[in-house]
Design goal:
There is one protein chain. This protein has about 120 residues and is mostly helical. The longest helix is centred in the middle third of the chain and has 22 residues. It is globular, with a radius of gyration of 17 Å.
Length: about 120
C-alpha cells in the first residue's frame, strides 16, 4: 500500500509544514511526514504550531463540554482565557505584535494553562 503525504490531502489542521513544493528540502520533509506525520519545519516555530493546532480543538472541547454542563465557573473561565491566548499567539502568522491589553490577555491565558491541564477530559 502506497503511503500518502498528509500535507497535500487538503484536510485542514493536520499538517503545519512551513515548506512549499519548490523547497530543496521538500523531498526529505515528505519522507518525514509519511514516516512520522510531521516534518522538521513544524519545529521552526513550535509555539505557533502548537497554538494553531490547539485553537480549533479547544473551541470544540469548550462547546461540547459546555453542552454537557461538564465545565463551568473558574475552570471554564480558565479555558476561555487560554483559548484567547492561543488565538492571539497564532494570528498574523505568529508575528506577535500586541497592544499592551493583548499582551496582558496572552499572559493571563498562558498562566491559566497549568491550572486547567488536568481538567481537559470528560
Amino acid at each position: 500500500m502506497k503511503k500518502v503525504d498528509i500535507k497535500y490531502l487538503g484536510i485542514p489542521n493536520i499538517c503545519f509544514s512551513l515548506t512549499n513544493k519548490d523547497d530543496d528540502r521538500e523531498k526529505e520533509y515528505r519522507k518525514q511526514r509519511i514516516k512520522r506525520g510531521f516534518d522538521n519545519s513544524e519545529t521552526w516555530s513550535l509555539g505557533d504550531t502548537i497554538a494553531n493546532f490547539i485553537v480549533p480543538r479547544l473551541e470544540l472541547y469548550i462547546e461540547l463540554a459546555s453542552e454537557m454542563i461538564v465545565i463551568e465557573g473558574e475552570f471554564k473561565e480558565g479555558l476561555e482565557s487560554f483559548l484567547d491566548a492561543m488565538k492571539l499567539l497564532s494570528r498574523d502568522g505568529g508575528i506577535r505584535i500586541f497592544t499592551e491589553e493583548e499582551k496582558e490577555r496572552a499572559e493571563k491565558g498562558l498562566k491559566a494553562f497549568p491550572e486547567i491541564f488536568y481538567g481537559l477530559w470528560w
